[in-house]
Design brief:
This protein is an alpha+beta fold and 306 residues long. The protein contains eight helices and 18 strands. It has helices at 3-11, 16-31, 39-54, 105-108, 110-117, 171-174, 182-186, 292-299; strands at 68-70, 91-93, 128-129, 132-133, 136-141, 146-152, 158-164, 179-180, 190-191, 197-202, 208-218, 225-233, 242-245, 251-256, 262-268, 271-277, 281-288, 302-303. Strands 5, 6, 7, 9, 10, 11, 12, 14, 15, 16 and 17 form an eleven-stranded antiparallel sheet that branches. It has a three-stranded parallel sheet with strand order 1-13-2, with no helix packed on it. A hairpin with a 5-residue loop joins strand 6 and strand 7. The protein is globular.
Length: 306
Amino acid sequence: MDNKLKAAVDSLKLSDAAAERITRSLDQAAARPRRRFRARAVIAIAAAAALLTLSVSAAYVELFRNSEIVGGVEDIPEPSIRPDMTESSVSYTRPLPDYGAPLSLDEGAENYREMYALFGTDEMLGGRVLSEPWTGSRVLCGSGDVLEREVYNASGYVKRDLFPARIELAADEFAPFLDIDFSALARLARPAEEANLICIKTDPDGALYEASLTAHYSAGEDGEWFRLGMCHLAQHEWAESNYVFEDDWDEAYYYANASGLEFLITALNSRIDAWCVTEHTSLSLMSYFMSTEELEAVLDCLSLPQ
């Protein structure tokens, strides 16, 4: 990473650990010997450099909001007061006793396939918005490769649900929030049938409120599979100051993918998860029976649009 970008990182009001990770992530993405840059990877790194450089005069900027890996409760720092916010909260995540127990693709995609099967009815409308349930729906497209419906509630929020046979068939819907290299991904995995969902929520004024994506993939001949998730909060920010304990996992580490995104990876038993959280966008991968190397190769297919 060039000296100007290093200086920008150093000048940010970040913890030492966060600043070090951001610097290391961009260094790794820029110097990885086993890959050639795709055009958008270069753009992503340049944009990250611009963001860090322009943020020198900002009150507070944090590029990634991933959980911190610590040894235990005693290593969690006291909550701090940021210059532009009230006192920040502190929380930590620990795996439940059955975390990582074997789970098949059919089991993992069951709820999504049930939602697909109930398309055209007002059953399984897909959660709530601001704690208020969805109350009804109407079909916009009931046949073809991309089913589409409109879901609404009493407060005037509206959700468009799209059920594509393959997630790339509706790529235009999530292109403002996530870029996927489908050619590279196709060499690693196959999309699962009737197990993909895109949701676009708008508020009562018609402004974007939230966008999300869920896609399931088979990733091998021995039951390997993963679920790709994305959630973009247009009117809110993702929380921060969450922690995970290193000894809870078989592996816990950070990985910078080909476009410079930092992921926290945790592995336990048959399950490996990856998370990348920015101010407004959260990316996640939940996988079973895959190796960390196989998971990293999938992560390299993802980038954030500029």
